[in-house]
Amino acid sequence: MLMRTDPFRELDRLAQTLIGPGTWSKPSAMAMDAYRDGDEYVVAFDLPGVTADAIDIDVERNMLTVKAERRPVAKADEVQMELSERPLGVFSRQIVLADTLDTERIQADYDAGVLTLRIPIAERAKPRKISIGVGSGHKEISG
Q: Residue 31: its pLDDT value, please?
């Protein structure tokens, strides 16, 4: 149901850590998992240290875009940073969703640094039984 759009994600993630933080025009990639759970697809993004108001989720046609920004912690003037390894900046991920998913009913939850999107499978994509008319059961439309 999902198509991969970035086959070199690990290489890109390593390059981003060497280059520096992402910006809105050139965001860094974020880690994610995607799986089917019954009648819905679940996509989970790792966004530790990001506040919920710094996350932006958009769907246009079948393109899902998630952007988030991890901002620096406000420091007092007398604080001297000794080590800074946590990446700051903008993170983004785009996913092409299959036409069989219902993008009108996406649910988003954010808990413990994980953004979880639940995307239901559209009714038209679910298996269904077709009834067969026999003999006089057929109706003719006249016009």
A: 87
